[in-house]
Amino acid sequence: MTRRQFEALVEKAMRKLPKRFRERVANIAVVVEDWADDETLEEMGIEPPDTLYGLYRGVDITHRDSSYGNVLPDVITIYQGPIEEDAADEAEMAEIVRETVIHELGHYFGLDENRLSELGYE
Q: Stretch 47-55: mean pLDDT, rounded?
C-alpha cells in the first residue's frame, strides 16, 4: 500500500471518531512513519520481535492548566510497516489503524494502558 493510501486510512479513522471526541481534539498532529526506530522502542521498553503500531507524545488534556499554551502540537505517530505486516488484507489493516488511532487518542484524553485495555484498546 502506498503512503498516501495508508494516510487515507488514518484520516478516515480520525473522521469517524464520535463528534463529542473529535470536537475536543486540539493542537495535535497525526503523522505516519514507516517503523518505530530503535531508540523509540528502547525508550518504550519494547524488545523485538514486538513493535509499535502507534505512539502518543505530548501533554494529555488532564495535565493541562491555564498556563498551557503557545506550545508545539502533541504528536500521534502511526507506524505503517508493522500494521501492514500484521494485517491479512486491507479491511484488517483499516481496523488496526482505527483501533490504533483510538488507542493513541485515549492517551491524549488521559487514559493509561490499564484503562485502555479495560475498554478493549490494548
A: 90
